[in-house]
């Protein structure tokens, strides 16, 4: 089993998603359900870190990023075999120009 950690920017992404849906879209229950779904989906990665495809951007990334889709959001993460750790790098709305954000 792998350890799961979120970069501060990924935590901010998740919080921003929740605030936007709860406040701007006036849907607090939807915000809660979605954020819980994102967290649970990322937690499953600790058992199956290679279950999601490698993300191949225009410019190469080191370390290699993987991409998990949760509804309309993409969770970008890395796997470090040496320390058995998954790091969530970003959580981005799938319809955004995420190439610039990753």
Describe this structure in words.
- The protein has 102 residues and is α+β, with helices and mostly antiparallel strands.
- It has one domain: 2-Layer Sandwich (YaeB-like fold), CATH 3.30.2310.
- 33% of the residues lie in helices and 25% in strands.
- A hairpin with a 4-residue loop joins strand 3 and strand 4.
Concise summary:
The chain has 102 residues and is of the alpha+beta class. Helix content is 33%, strand content 25%.
Determine the strand fraction and express it as a percent band.
25-35%
| Overall geometry | globular
The count of domains is 1
Give the helix/strand class. Answer: alpha+beta
Total count of strands: 4
- Determine the N-to-C terminus distance: 26 Å
What is the mean pLDDT? 92
Fourth-tier CATH superfamily name: RelE-like
| Rg over CA atoms | 14 Å
- The side-by-side strand order for the widest beta sheet comes to 1-4-3-2
Order of helices and strands: EHHEEE
CATH architecture call: 2-Layer Sandwich
Note the topology.
Blueprint: E1 3-6, H1 8-24, H2 28-44, E2 66-70, E3 73-80, E4 85-93
Parallel strand pairs: 1-4
Antiparallel strand pairs: 2-3, 3-4
Helix pairs in contact: 1-2
């Amino acid at each position: 089993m792998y350890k799961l950690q979120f970069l501060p920017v990924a935590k901010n992404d998740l919080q921003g998603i929740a605030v936007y849906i709860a406040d701007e879209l006036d849907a607090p229950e939807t915000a809660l359900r979605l954020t819980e779904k994102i967290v649970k989906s990322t937690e499953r990665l600790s058992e199956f870190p290679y279950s999601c495809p490698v993300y191949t951007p225009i410019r190469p990334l080191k370390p290699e990023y993987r991409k998990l889709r949760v509804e309309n959001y993409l969770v970008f993460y890395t796997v470090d075999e040496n320390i058995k750790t998954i790091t969530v790098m970003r959580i981005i709305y799938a319809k955004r120009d995420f190439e610039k954000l990753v």
